[in-house]
Amino acid sequence: MIKNKKVSLADIAMTLGVSKTLVSMVLNGKGDENGISKKTQERVMELAESMNYKPNQFARGLRMGRSNTIGLIVSDISNPFYSRLARSVEDAVSESGYNLMICSSDESEEKEMKLLEMLINKQVDGIILSSTLDSTDHVESLQNENFPFVLIDRIYNDFEANTVVVDNRTGALEAVEFIINNGHKKIAALVISPAHISTQVDRLEGYKDALSKHSIPINQYYQKVVKREDIYNAVSQIFIEWKSDHMMPTAIFVTNNQLAIGCLEAIRDLGLSIPKDISIVSFDDIDLFKLYSPPITSVIQPINSIARNAVEILLDNIKIKDNSESLIKTHKCLQTNIVVRNSVLKLA
Amino acid sequence: MIKNKKVSLADIAMTLGVSKTLVSMVLNGKGDENGISKKTQERVMELAESMNYKPNQFARGLRMGRSNTIGLIVSDISNPFYSRLARSVEDAVSESGYNLMICSSDESEEKEMKLLEMLINKQVDGIILSSTLDSTDHVESLQNENFPFVLIDRIYNDFEANTVVVDNRTGALEAVEFIINNGHKKIAALVISPAHISTQVDRLEGYKDALSKHSIPINQYYQKVVKREDIYNAVSQIFIEWKSDHMMPTAIFVTNNQLAIGCLEAIRDLGLSIPKDISIVSFDDIDLFKLYSPPITSVIQPINSIARNAVEILLDNIKIKDNSESLIKTHKCLQTNIVVRNSVLKLA
DNA sequence: TTAAAATACTAAACCGTTTTAGAAATTTTT
DNA sequence: AAAAATTTCTAAAACGGTTTAGTATTTTAA
């Protein structure tokens, strides 16, 4: 089974009385193209098998400059959206014989830079990145070095790179339009910090699109950025403010699952009832939404598809780089779906 | 920033007119102990810094036989329990300068073996394993090779190894006792497959302990194993069976969060009401339980503490191995907490 | 004044692969 | 029968570090 992996190419070569070169070629499937006789090939393969030979990855990596590993950076692997994404990425890369290194950046720019450096240092063959950064310096230097990477989930408008995203703006538009079609006019949008992140920006745009489209005035007062460090209290504060101003919206659109959880808690603790007192629609479907009472209408992202596309593009890029052909940039924008449940009240 | 890392030790040595040996020593903090003059040390460090030297991990790993990476195998990183565990492990190892490789075994014995092999092949310095396997062959061979590893969450009774677990039996006992103290007598236990896993076994034992302690007869009919592939339907079937037999329990104890989710769905769809028709207590606290109506009483595992302990023990072991001292085995058993909410009816 | 010790450093081996450049033995061509 | 081509295989370099076993020079001790 798992043997004391001390068997090296040299050992095999020695016992067989052939050269390391030959053994290496055979085991890498290059026996035929190098004119190694069938018989010798067989002898090598058999012995390698029976000695349970496993090539030393360090030696291999050192020589070839590749690790067969790819890196994934997300903001927090314990967020269900990212953990499911990571799982899909894991499955996809392992199908192609790659390993995965998952890292959490914690929405910290500094940490993200460190992780990026670490992954490059570990010589990963490519990186899938959901970036927290506002600037593009770091990805630009990746680009300049011709390092394969793909941006997912969060992207930069003004920067050309491989990207796999969801059509956040349309997704949000549809969600808010759904609210509007139920007769609502006073609709608030809650965004999570840092608000510069493309998903948040786009979803907020989509919210505004929907209002505009239906000629509902856009009110700054109904657009709030919530600090992710203290969601529950921040949200509670917002509700209290609305209430005391006698400006309570009839519906809220929430752009993130963590934010939604905070909202549900706050709403409950303030004694409000969904959807009677307030309607809600959230981005990111999580188990909770399906089982909450009432079940929460939400925007579903095609997580598996995001992962598959990102991996495919990345592996393509790695291959292209190996052949030192010139890279092309691929953009993929996937559509979301809205799953209607019972969290939006139909107004007269 | 992230520079084209082509700078090697030799480059630094060359420009400074010293040997690679010296540079290596200085950069590894062994300058003093090897009597390198302060002045030279400074020159080396400065140049390394300014050239943005980053040691090649492959070369280093090849020579030293270590990767500064540890492996974590769980059944599924998208399960919130494991994703939170993974996150804590990530934080803990990175504080000690290690990197982490997270893998999902999917409750497949074959996959688990493959992952183990892969990690060993990648020369990780140690492994944290939440095993799916029934047999101990694989961990025995780790043991025999003196490979540092620690078993978490799921362990083997008949096998000596480093372990960090939770006191599942007592946790379950307390949970069921809480149900009993509310006047229940017809209490069922739902376990998830594969049922041989220690957590499931122990929690079921705890359930029986509680019944015995309070002189309630133990009835096989109320102990069900649910296939994890089709939880919702399996659970629904069980409820229907109980109903048609006129044997509906007044309370159920559920040993896993995924199972609980299936139960909540099934219970809702069968038109039953919690806790009026049926009371429920689950293991593993998840967001859903806090926000469900009614909020679900559950047993909380000290996830962060599990992770920290496991990492500490593992890193200790790695250190011990480096000094080729003889390994000692550490066992850690952490207590759970029960968080009482509103899912258990107080019977007259 | 010479031997021993301390200081400051280095050449070369080594880790285990892959790859380059070519060699030896056999077969084919002329 | 010599030249050319084919088949089968190999020695040695390279990847970039760490470590071992020294060496040369200066200082201290006897």
Could you characterize the architecture of this molecule?
Two copies of one chain form a homodimer. By secondary structure, the first copy, chain A, is an alpha/beta fold. Chain A has three domains: 9-55, Orthogonal Bundle (434 Repressor (Amino-terminal Domain)); 68-165 and 304-334, Response regulator (Rossmann fold, 3-Layer(aba) Sandwich), CATH 3.40.50; 168-301, Response regulator (Rossmann fold, 3-Layer(aba) Sandwich). The first copy, chain A, contains 13 helices and twelve strands. The first copy, chain A, has helices spanning 9-16, 20-27, 38-50, 57-64, 80-95, 109-121, 137-144, 168-181, 198-213, 231-244, 257-269, 287-291, 303-322; strands at residues 69-74, 99-104, 126-129, 149-152, 162-166, 187-192, 223-226, 251-254, 279-283, 297-300, 331-334, 337-339. In chain A, strands 2-1-3-4-5-11 form a six-stranded parallel sheet, with helices on both faces. A six-stranded mixed sheet of chain A has the order 7-6-8-9-10-12, with helices on both faces. In chain A, α8 packs parallel to α9. The longest helix of chain A is centred in the C-terminal third of the chain and has 20 residues, at 303-322. Chains A and B meet through α4, α5, β2, α6 and α7 of A and α4, α5, β2, α6 and α7 of B. Chain A binds a DNA duplex (30 and 30 nucleotides) through residues 8-10, 18-22, 24-25, 28, 34-37, 40, 55-65.
